[in-house]
Design brief:
Elements: H1 11-30, H2 44-57, H3 69-78, H4 82-88, H5 100-107, H6 110-119, H7 128-136, H8 140-147, H9 159-168, H10 175-184, H11 195-208, H12 218-235, H13 240-260, H14 264-271, H15 281-288, H16 297-308, E1 313-314, H17 321-326, E2 347-348, H18 352-357, H19 359-386, H20 397-427, H21 435-451, H22 454-458, H23 469-497, H24 504-539, H25 549-560, H26 575-610, H27 612-627, H28 644-655, H29 660-705, H30 712-741, H31 754-761, H32 764-776, H33 786-811
Parallel strand pairs: 1-2
Helix pairs in contact: 3-4, 3-5, 4-6, 5-6, 6-8, 7-8, 8-10, 10-12, 11-13, 12-13, 12-15, 15-27, 16-27, 19-20, 19-23, 20-21, 21-23, 24-25, 24-26, 28-29, 29-30
């Protein structure tokens, strides 16, 4: 009777004894016998027997007199004790038992299943059979949680499951789950016979249109379905056109949904929905380059706010009295007031909270680090050439120190990629291997070659005579390594600049143009080789410029680009025939092919010019996913090379933090320690800018003092002798003020969050009215429009007010 009423704690000591036996049996199987306390609980034998008899009577326990975890969980769920079922999941070795997820599926316990899957992800308690059972029994919320465990995804290869996924695409309530499953399934495992039914079902669903409104994440559903159909089109040439058309229709439908959402906050809410791979709609759209979904002005405003952070960060000039005078107008006394302190209510770019809330600040730090590396390495190379130590850096202590510092910087870049990979694993984000990662890998390889002095390994002798081939080759090897390194470093700079709106699209154009040029070169070289064979065969006797294959190729190449140097006059015989052949070649090569290349490049430029904003937003969202702050693991991505070496050292105790709360606390403190070095650099930059402005502000002070009436001469004389002192006092006062603001918290009241706003309007009375309206909806109707819902809500309010008025009249 106690168990029926939710009194489950009496079973805990019994389970502890049972779990010790389980641990003992497990240790025997693994070959390591653990010492376990087998001291029995007082009266546990009789109670266990009675409890087992009760479970047998209820049809839960089999006749083996053993206590199983799924029996306890099933009993609690049978009598509706959800909270008690959640608590027993915390018992020792409870999650090591099988059939727990199946019990939740049979009982329809969504909350318990969610907690169970969340706690048991690392224990691998889910199986593919559990996912099949959840789909079969239409427990889609539990099945969605099971999709997050990779071991269950093999169930999606089953043909019966795929047939059911096709049927789920007919309904707006279930198509989102089908889209999640299709995203988890590689297209090569999809049954070819089901492609046509899937295409037809989706086309009918899109024509209905209104069904998609029933999905709780309509835009996310459309994006996931489009990505699957694009992948399916690449895998199946037979159905490629149909799959591409369906994918385009899903993108078009998602675009219409975006256009229909006028409120910016609502649009941000739908675009921030996440799939089971923990990717937002923004990230999926950016990675797949769905530019139509990034072209609207509302999306641009949302992207800018997300990138810059929730709170506006003011620049350094806003915290400088000297800069205020520099930009001030003549005769404006307020702007000349040096006693006015810094406004502490604002958040500035040099503050710690700006670095953790704004991805833009950490991006600027990464850009500064990369740019400094490029400039520093340029100086190292120029210094080595001037000291004639280019073939062997070890001959100069100064050069070898600079080279080692550069290589340390590059190894820190590699360390940054490793820490980013760990960060993605801990935060369940996707690690993207793009061109930037390949450039970093190439830099590390070249830095290893340079550190090992590969030129000395190949040519180990200490000295070579001047002008010898060995000395030339030794210098050449060093030059090749250095050339590759400097090229990769500047490619990294270009990769960081991709996010800027002014230079990013231009760099993207160059990248796409290089790809088109590469395709053109293949065609052009094939034509050149063909024509070189023809001209060499016909005219190798009659012209010295066509006497062999190499000279013919060089002659034709020069002719194609207008470098005509007497090819016609070099023929001794068959001049008319040679002129006709050379003219035909020039028409094809110089007129047709080269103009075709110009047209191709112009087309690339025009296409990118039309989607400059969307391209920039796509790159921004990719960077945002990489730099977004995490309260538990943000330290891993906080610092840039070479400062991230300190983050790596501090990350060791971070990984060893026992609890989530302790990890968050240590993460913030460690980030503040790393930010101290940022603060020093920012303070130096701030003081350098103010020193440059100070002289200009001093002369600007005369123009401000000039228009103050009769006493202007006295003020001008006072400013002449004391103005510089006033400015220096303001300079040091501002420097001290911003140093105190580095770790300052928010001043004034905190902004009201969305949760608090919701709590102001969503109370018990409103929830009761919502429930009343939903209970009045007929079962065959299923849904109700928002307009009808709000009309009925207003009617209920009017009815209640009338009832209150009548009651007050009767009482009176």
């Amino acid at each position: 009777e106690g168990f029926k009423n939710g009194c489950y704690r009496f079973a805990e000591p019994i389970w502890e004894q049972e779990s010790k036996q389980i641990e003992k049996r497990r240790s025997k199987r693994t070959g390591t016998l653990k010492v376990v306390d087998e001291k029995p609980v007082a009266g546990s034998a009789k109670f266990k027997q009675a409890f087992a008899s009760f479970l047998v009577k209820e049809g839960i326990l089999e006749e083996d007199n053993r206590l199983y975890a799924h029996e306890i969980l099933g009993t609690l769920l049978k009598f509706g004790h959800t909270k008690a079922a959640k608590r027993v999941l915390k018992w020792d070795n409870f999650l090591h038992q099988e059939k727990l997820i199946m019990v939740c599926i049979n009982a329809g316990a969504i909350e318990v299943a969610h907690e169970l899957i969340k706690r048991g992800q690392e224990l691998d308690i889910a199986r593919s059979q559990d996912l099949i059972a959840a789909i079969t029994m239409e427990q889609y919320e539990i099945a969605t949680d099971l999709l997050k465990i990779r071991t269950t995804n093999s169930a999606l290869k089953d043909i019966d499951v795929q047939e059911q996924l096709v049927r789920l695409c007919e309904n707006g309530h279930t198509i989102h789950f089908a889209a999640e499953c299709l995203t988890r399934l590689h297209p090569k495992f999809w049954d070819m016979d089901l492609i046509k039914p899937l295409v037809q079902t989706c086309m009918i669903f899109l024509k209905a249109g209104q069904e998609m409104v029933n999905s709780h994440s309509p835009i996310l559903t459309c994006v996931l379905m489009a990505s699957f159909f694009y992948k399916l089109a690449n895998m199946t040439p037979e159905h490629s056109n149909k799959c591409t058309i369906v994918a385009q229709n899903f993108i078009e439908f998602a675009t219409h949904l975006q256009d229909g959402i006028k409120d910016e906050d609502e649009l941000k809410y739908y675009m921030s929905h996440k799939d089971t791979l923990n990717r937002t709609v923004f990230q999926i759209v950016a990675l797949n380059r769905y530019y139509d979904l990034l072209s609207s002005d509302e999306i641009g405003a949302i992207t800018t706010k997300i990138w810059q952070g929730k709170e506006k960060a003011y620049g350094m000039s806003q915290a400088s009295s000297l800069v205020r005078i520099f930009y001030g107008q003549a005769g404006n006394v307020e702007e000349f007031d040096l006693s006015r302190p810094i406004d502490k209510r604002k958040m500035y770019v040099f503050q710690f909270r700006a670095f953790i809330t704004s991805c833009r600040m950490r991006y600027l730090a990464e850009f500064a680090s990369t740019m400094l590396l490029a400039l520093f390495y340029q100086v190292v190379i120029y210094t080595a050439i001037s000291k004639q130590t280019f073939d062997d850096f070890t001959r100069s202590d100064r050069i070898i120190f600079y080279v080692r510092l550069t290589n340390y910087w590059i190894f820190c870049i590699f360390l940054s990629n490793v820490m980013e990979y760990v960060f993605t694993l801990k935060t369940h984000r996707s690690y993207i291997i793009d061109g930037g990662k390949l450039v970093d890998a190439g830099l590390v390889v070249m830095a290893c070659f340079q550190s090992l002095a590969i030129q000395k390994t190949i040519y180990p002798d200490e000295t070579y005579p001047a002008g010898s081939d060995e000395l030339y080759n030794k210098t050449l090897i060093s030059a090749i390594v250095v050339s590759i390194m400097i090229t990769l470093i500047w490619l990294k700079v270009a990769g960081v600049l991709l996010i800027t709106k002014t230079l990013g699209p231009f760099l993207r154009m160059m990248y796409l143009m290089v790809g088109e040029i590469f395709k053109f070169v293949i065609i052009f070289m094939a034509f050149m080789i063909c024509m070189a064979c023809i001209f060499t065969s016909l005219f190798h006797i009659h012209s010295e410029k066509f006497d062999n294959f190499s000279s013919t190729t060089l002659t034709l190449f020069n002719g194609a680009f207008g470098n005509y140097d007497g090819e016609y006059t070099s023929f001794t015989n068959f001049r008319p025939f040679a002129a006709i052949m050379f003219g035909i070649y020039m028409i094809i090569a110089a007129v047709m092919l080269l103009n075709l290349l110009i047209a191709i490049l112009s087309n690339v430029y025009s296409e990118l010019q039309g989607r400059v904003d969307a391209e920039n937003r796509a790159v921004t969202m990719v960077y945002y996913n990489r730099l977004k702050w995490n309260k538990s693991w943000g330290l891993l991505i906080f610092a840039v090379p070479p400062l991230n070496a300190l983050s790596f050292v501090l990350a060791i105790p971070l990984m060893a933090s026992p609890t989530s709360k302790a990890r968050k606390k240590f993460n913030k403190k460690a980030a503040k320690v790393v930010f101290f070095f940022y603060a020093i650099c920012l303070l130096l930059v701030y003081m350098s800018i103010n020193l440059l402005v100070l002289i200009v502000a001093y002369f600007k002070g005369f123009t401000i003092q000039k228009r103050k009436g009769k006493t202007s001469v006295v003020l001008l004389i006072r400013w002449l002798f004391l103005g510089l002192i006033f400015l220096l006092m303001a300079f040091f006062r501002d420097a001290v003020a911003i140093s105190r603001l580095f770790y300052a918290k928010r001043y004034g009241p905190k902004p009201t969050t969305d949760r608090k706003k919701l709590g102001q309007y969503l109370n018990e009375d409103v929830i009761r009215k919502f429930q009343q309206i939903l209970s009045e909806v007929p079962e065959d109707q299923g849904t109700v429009s928002l307009g009808e819902f709000m009309d009925r809500f207003n009617e209920i309010e009017v009815e209640e007010e009338q009832m209150k008025a009548e009651a007050s009249t009767i009482t009176g």
